[in-house]
């Protein structure tokens, strides 16, 4: 068990027993809900009005299921969005060469990436996947920054500039629409770019250029990753979009990308989808997105990949099984 006690998990849109049901759903191989995949409201209750300059010291995370050097900054403060935990995974050999610098992948839903004790959904095993890929010489060693989500996950991850109607559909039948006025994804991206990234660059040996900075996530996290690339093309060079939840906003993000994607040849995008549970809805949307990629001049297999995974449902267990694919695509060019 991790030396850090896991938080009691609840959701914004479901009662506490809903989190238990979700955990059981993962164990049964069923889908994880893209809207209510939330961390505990305890985190938001702990916010104490810190300003971004007063960041707590990181603590080491060790325990069953944690591989390598994982650090956690609890309640990282922000002037833009609610404070949240930040997990920082340092690659093997980081301590051995004080002159070596590393690319960085910023991943959303950070509580689901490394530490089994921080999530009831199952974790991606990003630490294990990166360790294998680095040991095999498949990818450049990289720092992975896991940004935990908040109780406003949908509002933070839904691309605001894609929306024109006063309300935005979630793409999940049992949840009604959100008011567009509640969507704060632009503020979330300002947090990533103007607060979190400068801190990471100041305190860890990073390669700070666009060519060495990436965003990645699943479901709604896929949408916000593509949005980050489009809104900040001088900051991010690649986006990994896993089981992208295109039905949110009824596919409006695809139209946004058609108008706002950066030029082909300078950026990389990865998309994938399964065929079971919620992912069964995604293929028609992905076909539209692929047409946009082709029209913008992106070349399949070079600066863009779309993969279909037959039989995969919408959950962390499925994403764990294929996380090496987007990581390899984003980090395989070794120019050391």
Keywords, separated by commas or semicolons:
10 helices, 11 strands, alpha/beta, 336 residues
Write up what this structure looks like.
- The N terminus is likely disordered.
- A hairpin with a 7-residue loop joins strand 2 and strand 3.
- The chain has 10 helices and 11 strands.
- It is α/β, with parallel strands linked by helices and 336 residues long.
- The strands form 2 sheets. The protein has a 9-stranded mixed β-sheet, with helices on both faces. A two-stranded antiparallel sheet has the order 6-7.
Task: Summarize it.
The protein is an alpha/beta fold.
Percent of residues in β-strands? 15-25%
**Tally of contiguous helical segments:** 10
Helix/strand-derived category reads alpha/beta
Q: Encode the helix/strand succession as letters.
A: HHEEEEHEHEEHEHEHEHEHH
- CA-to-CA gap between the ends? 37 Å
Topology:
Blueprint: H1 16-27, H2 41-45, E1 59-61, E2 69-76, E3 84-90, E4 104-108, H3 126-135, E5 143-147, H4 153-157, E6 167-168, E7 178-179, H5 185-203, E8 213-218, H6 220-231, E9 238-242, H7 252-260, E10 268-274, H8 282-295, E11 304-309, H9 316-322, H10 324-331
Parallel strand pairs: 4-5, 4-8, 8-9, 9-10, 10-11
Antiparallel strand pairs: 1-2, 2-3, 3-5, 6-7
Helix pairs in contact: 7-8
